């Protein structure tokens, strides 16, 4: 495996890049890119495979046709929705069209919320989340920070990336009420479907009727289909229309269209995948928590942030896991608000997790495998809001 790929860019290399650089060994287990391992089901992939020629050969429908089906499935009004080629396209257009001069964002968080406005010359007011508070967002303090800095746009990611921290719905609504005078408040719910701390936690319905709120969602992340590049935003008709009118006519691909039109049929299987992933997250949290000196942060995403024991750095551990165990992890040294002592680990099934735990144990504890249990684990479930 060519380790130079891991050091050549700010973002983690794609899985395709890793495959191309491999020398014939088995593909790495991906603990880096947050993906739902239980969806789509094998039956869905089989259906897509049977129809591959048609999907690739013909133009997709226009965005309006796809939006009508998406909104019928999700209970949204088409005029409140704009769809993009991944959430990053929408972040780009939101920045160009709706962010005038300044934007406040907690860090650490998804890098495009700092990088995109900086690239277009905006002032980015970075609000540091405290590790001593487990990176939890304090709404009152964040509002005070925004008032002090004079920020005109505010962003939160809920759950947050990379730590998975979750702000309960009533606190999000409190934040929206307090910031009613801003140009814009953005709630990035790209990982919202993985939340099981409370039912129906999103605020998309609120965004549709508020004057200055945008909610961002990601179908690819939740469905385990990053390759379809599909995200959507919900806002009042005026805001949604400004973004929608700026987007290219055919900015969505045929794979995304097929998946949208399959959603209603396979919603029970999708909900089952979320349940299974939540169970895996709780078990994985407990397993990692048994490792001496390793700090594991509470998460409502489909990933867990860990801080390595004192004296250890994530770069050599990342390289060791990839070359010796075929495990690909996200080392967070290039993420604002964290250091290379942090790793973000995607929640995966137990067979994959055992492979990760063996590799981490060998590196961190001089190869002593008796330090933690890696097989036959039967941990009690923990409160989902804390794990």
CATH topology of the largest domain: Aspartate Aminotransferase, domain 2
Domain count: 2
Give me the strand/helix succession. Answer: HEHHHEHEHEHEHEHEHEHHHEEHEEH
Ends apart, CA distance between termini: 33 Å
Strand content: 5-15%
Neighbour order of strands in the largest sheet: 2-8-7-6-5-3-4
Tell me about the biggest sheet? 7 strands, mixed
Give a verbal description of the structure.
This protein has 387 residues and is of the alpha/beta class. It is 40% helix and 14% strand. The protein folds into two domains: 3-31 and 268-364, Aspartate Aminotransferase, domain 1 (Alpha-Beta Complex); 42-262, Type I PLP-dependent aspartate aminotransferase-like (Major domain) (Aspartate Aminotransferase, domain 2, 3-Layer(aba) Sandwich), CATH 3.40.640.10. The chain is built from 15 helices and twelve strands. A seven-stranded mixed β-sheet has the order 2-8-7-6-5-3-4, sandwiched between helices. The longest helix has 23 residues, at 267-289. It starts with 14 loop residues before the first helix and ends in a 23-residue tail after the last helix. Mean pLDDT is 91; it is low at 367-387.
Topology:
Layout: H1 15-21, E1 29-31, H2 42-50, H3 52-57, H4 63-74, E2 81-84, H5 87-98, E3 102-107, H6 112-119, E4 123-128, H7 139-149, E5 153-157, H8 169-178, E6 184-188, H9 204-207, E7 213-218, H10 219-223, E8 231-234, H11 237-246, H12 254-262, H13 267-289, E9 295-296, E10 303-307, H14 314-325, E11 327-331, E12 342-346, H15 350-364
Helix pairs in contact: 5-6, 14-15
